Amino acid sequence: MQGILRIENASKSFQAPEGGVIRALDNVSLTVAHNEFLTLLGPSGCGKTTLLRAVSGFEDLDSGEIYIDGQPVSDQPAHKRPVNTVFQRYALFPHLTVERNVAYSLEVRGIAKAEIRERVGNMLELVGLAGMGARKIGQLSGGQQQRVALARSLVAQPKILLLDEPLSALDKNLRHKMQQELKILQHELGISFIFVTHDQEEALVMSDRIAVLNGGTIQQLDAPEELYRRPGNEFVARFIGESNLLDATVVSVEGASCDVVLTDGTVIRDCPVNGLKQGDPAKVLIRPENLVESVGQSSADERAGHEISGTVSESFFAGTDYHLVLACQGLPPVRASLRAGPGTSHHTIGEQTSLFVPHDAVHLIPERGAPA
Amino acid sequence: MSKARRTLENRRRLTLFGLLLPPSAFLAIFFLGPLAIMIVYSWLTPGLYGGVEWKFFHLNYGRILGWADTKYERFDPVYFEIFLRSVKLAATTVLLSLILCYPVAFWVSRMPEKRKNLVIFLITLPFFISLIVRLFAWVLILRPTGFFNQALMGLGLIDEPLEIIFTGTAVVIGMVYVFVPFMFLPLYASIEKLDLSLIEASQDLGANRIQTFFRVILPMTLPGIVGGSIIVFIPSLGNFIGPSLLGGAKVVMIGNLIEQQFLSARNWPFGAALGMMVMAAVLVLLLYYIRIVTREERQADGPNVAEEVAA
Ligand SMILES: Nc1ncnc2c1ncn2[C@@H]1O[C@H](COP(=O)(O)OP(=O)(O)OP(=O)(O)O)[C@@H](O)[C@H]1O
Ligand SMILES: [Mg+2]
């Protein structure tokens, strides 16, 4: 794929002040398509900012190469790269007005005054700040500053816009609003966005694809739904959404499905095989919201091989769902969120119960280090 | 406002008043008092044998600025020339110490914490030695048989010793040396405060180093530049130890003139009038500084408009 941005085997280490070496980026490769909204998601310190800074030109890679629109950029200084950044703390110029902040990139390029005025005016309108051009940065709310930062970067018409946790300083309502606006804006402008966040919900809602990073490596790069339903490894499964991860061994394979046995001896049948072979160890991922109450399911026959039984050890009602924790002998606690519908009822602690595992609710993750 | 609140408010006001009274009184008596005396004296008639006669007299200023034309008090352009020369020397001192300190302040601000403190300590270290001794050291260095000339001649760069001592150059060198810490500290404070992400933002938006310097770094550190310049300019303008040691009889600055009027010529009103000239120059600068700083502060904490959240 010839995308707008291609990163090849990017590695970057820092000398830790305490001694030792931090591998901030470890052989990272990825491609961003034209007009794509790609999110870098990962816990604090996983290298998200470092990756963005490598793209924008503020961090030199130890090895690897970055191509923007097919051109290698490693010897291009930051100010010559056709990318712009919305910084985490906005980094707006406090000594300039909103208008001059937005005009900055045009002024330094020596564009004619009349054109600057027009483009800045249009941009302020686009981000909903029309009429505020004369204000100083100190006279804006957090949300307005965020928009100025956005306008300031977009007015330069970058090929790629980099956004480093631009919404993390906003309160929840404003954040949701800005999420939608950003998405719409990206779609309208047709610019590729690389968006950094450590909020998985934000990532799922906004992205075309998400790259999950941990410890400087890309754990998985996929569309949100794929990432959620079929995480490639345990880290991704745990990092995104709620998860039950149970140790299991494959007992038999039959075409595209297989049976596994859990550590307590429970057999779960008809799981998607996901490249596993008989005898392979695997992690069974079951999302809490995919478990349903067994009582409603038709016959015992149908339920056989699709059930987990245990004692209710926690139970509470949370409006849309009943949250349960099932203690099963030989298994870690199993969480379930049962939709609070007409058929579901409150479970009391200590009660023996079984939960039904629909066959498409199971995802098998090959154990790390397992023979391929 | 409830009654309890009001009592609390009153008590707080009383405490504040009590705390502020002593320093205010001190400043009023020992700072404003002498200043008022100087202002009044500058408009009085000089006494025949020192002191003053309590009669209004405007020719003290006339002698400096050009309207005195009597038998005793005549306008002499030399006073204003000395004043202008002093302004020039002081301005040169400011400029040189600024050029010296600005890059160094940047350099120090990037050092690790421990080294920073050491360097700042080193920069203030000369204060531990008497000013006279430090300036006299420069006399020894700059005189024809001094270290500087000896070194240059030893290297074969010059044949004759350079005439540096007792010139304006020597005075400026001495003053730069003495006042560099005054320039460094305010500069350092504003450069240290400078948000590095603003520099990156500037580059990110396509500005090269030079554009970034003039559009972001310079305006953001302007309060430090102006502050340091004023703190150096004021004592340089009124300086008389530097010129008397390093300038000899040839380079007289307004400070020396004032000193002479008070101590040898015993013409206090004229000395006071000369002093007022210095004050006026300084005041203009201070007003300019206040304007810059308040503008900066207004930007930093302007009224925050309420967050607009979609209803
Ligand atoms: N200049 C530096 N010197 C030393 N170590 C650094 C430097 N910059 C980053 N690191 C280290 O590199 C790792 C990755 O940092 P990075 O800023 O990319 O994390 P991040 O994913 O953006 O985290 P966050 O979500 O907290 O912003 C961290 O362990 C960090 O401590
Ligand atoms: Mg970061």
**Structural classification of chain A:** alpha+beta
**Quaternary structure:** heterodimer
Are there runs of chain B of 5+ residues with pLDDT below 50, and where?
301-311
So how many helices of chain B? 12
Question: What is the CA-CA span between the terminal residues of chain B?
Answer: 33 Å
Portion of residues in helices of chain B? over 70%
CATH architectural label of chain B: Orthogonal Bundle
Main beta sheet of chain B: 2 strands, antiparallel
Q: SSE order of chain A, as H and E? A: EEEHEEEHHHEHEHEEHHEEEEEHEEEEE
pLDDT average of chain A, as an integer?
90
Largest interface: A-B, 38 and 31 residues
Structural class of chain B: mainly alpha
**Tell me about the biggest sheet of chain A?**
6 strands, mixed
Strand content of chain A: 25-35%
Give the DSSP E fraction of chain B (strand runs of 2 or more residues): under 5%
Mean pLDDT of chain B: 88
Tags for this model:
heterodimer; A: five-stranded antiparallel beta sheet; 9 helices; 20 strands; B: 311 residues; mainly alpha; MetI-like fold; two-stranded antiparallel sheet; globular; binds adenosine-5'-triphosphate; binds magnesium ion
Q: What would you say this structure looks like, in words?
A:
The complex is a heterodimer of chains A (372) and B (311). With 372 residues, chain A is α+β, with helices and mostly antiparallel strands. Chain A is built from nine helices and 20 strands. Chain A has helices at 48-56, 98-108, 113-126, 142-154, 172-189, 200-206, 224-229, 234-239, 300-303; strands at 5-15, 21-32, 37-41, 63-68, 71-72, 83-86, 160-164, 192-197, 209-214, 217-222, 244-254, 257-262, 267-272, 281-286, 292-293, 307-317, 321-327, 334-339, 352-356, 362-366. Chain A is elongated. Chain B is an all-alpha fold. Chain B has one domain (78-310): MetI-like fold. In chain B, strands 1-2 form a two-stranded antiparallel sheet. Mean pLDDT of chain B is 88; it is low at 301-311. The radius of gyration of chain B is 25 Å and the shape is globular. In chain B, helix 8 (196-204) runs antiparallel to helix 9, helix 9 (209-237) packs antiparallel against helix 12 (268-300) and helix 11 crosses helix 12 (268-300). Chain B is 72% helix and 3% strand. The chains are: A alpha+beta (372), B mainly alpha (311). Adenosine-5'-triphosphate is lined by residues 14, 22, 24, 42, 44-50, 198 of chain A.
